[in-house]
Amino acid sequence: MEFAAESIEPCLFAAAMPRTFVACSLLLTFAIPAAAGEVYVNNLIGSDRADGRSATPEGKTTGPTRSIGRALERVRKADRLIIANTGQPYYEAISLCEGKHCGRDTRPFEIVGNGAILDGTLPVEPSAWNFRGNDVFRFQPGWLSSQMLYLDGKPAQRRQRLADGAWPQIDPLEWLLRDGRVYFRVEPTKIPEDYALRYAARQTGITLHHVRHVKITDLIVQGFALDGVNAHDGAAFCRLENVTSRGNGRSGVSVGGSSRLALAQCTIGDNGQVQLRTEGHSIALLSDTIVVDNTAPSHRVEGGELYFDGQRIQADDRLYPESANPPADE
């Protein structure tokens, strides 16, 4: 399948990005009975005192929750958690690690994002900055090994260590991560408080840990220090559909342990160290998915199995090997 450049633009931050590879196949389906219970989240009109069982407030206790975290406390096994796209990001993380966060063979536990943004950033406090000279300021974030700095709602231009190991000079509005500290150069006569700067304050956007039959759709995940999505271990029959993971410190998607994760119609790009990684004994199956290596390598196989369009990718393989034996569709 061919993808035009403009099909990427609405999903990622940059106006134009090269396409690294596209994978098409391994489409999975779930049977979803109409009787599935529903829990609603709305970060504008919701209340965390509400039961989440209505999309709009109906009295003191019935209505949407304000936070996704509270909604996850309200769900039952095989429910659908429906997130309202209010135009305001949800500044929190999602952790699925309990039995009630699982589905059944006949019906998954679903999170329906409706295009909402899950954001892991917080503003940099003005007092956190220290002047280092030559218009350069620095601060020390909580997460030291990986980080992202956002400027005006998008990742700021980042400089990496040079091939010889030396640290480069940074130009105005650029940043680098060195020894666990973020260095940012302002424009002449300005200070960091003059900019809308945010940093990746939360570790992982969506964590899947020992859950089964989970489906997450139509969600944008951005601004987390480690991974946008991390299938940590024991995630089985889990699927991401039309999920965009962008601007995270380490990777957009990480699949590890014994997890088995399918991605369909997803977009991954603008991440710090690698776009997609696998490790352990995991299996990642991608179909109809765009991975863009604009800021970091497209993929890293540190263990496990990675398949694009039915073709297995080894650690040092090219993206389109001729032979492959993918596992059966889930």
For the terminal residues, how far apart are their CA atoms? 22 Å
Rg from Cα: 20 Å
Q: List the domain count as a whole number.
A: 2
Helix content: under 10%
User: Class by helix and strand content?
Assistant: mainly beta
Shape category: globular
Describe this structure in words.
The protein has one helix and 27 strands. Helix content is 2%, strand content 38%. It has one helix spanning 68-74; strands at residues 21-23, 38-41, 80-83, 94-96, 109-119, 121-123, 130-133, 136-139, 149-151, 154-155, 157-158, 174-178, 181-185, 197-200, 204-209, 212-222, 227-233, 236-246, 251-255, 260-264, 267-269, 276-278, 283-287, 289-291, 299-301, 305-308, 311-313. The chain has two domains: 5-37 and 76-120 and 204-313, no CATH class; 121-200. It is globular, with a radius of gyration of 20 Å. It has 330 residues and is an all-beta fold. A hairpin with a 2-residue loop joins strand 26 and strand 27.
Provide tags for this entry.
330 residues; mainly beta; 1 helix; 2% helix; 38% strand; disordered N terminus
Q: Secondary-structure blueprint of this entry?
A:
Elements: E1 21-23, E2 38-41, H1 68-74, E3 80-83, E4 94-96, E5 109-119, E6 121-123, E7 130-133, E8 136-139, E9 149-151, E10 154-155, E11 157-158, E12 174-178, E13 181-185, E14 197-200, E15 204-209, E16 212-222, E17 227-233, E18 236-246, E19 251-255, E20 260-264, E21 267-269, E22 276-278, E23 283-287, E24 289-291, E25 299-301, E26 305-308, E27 311-313
Parallel strand pairs: 2-3, 3-5, 4-15, 5-16, 11-12, 15-17, 16-18, 17-19, 18-20, 18-21, 19-22, 20-23, 21-24, 22-25, 23-26
Antiparallel strand pairs: 1-24, 6-14, 7-8, 8-13, 9-10, 9-14, 12-13, 26-27
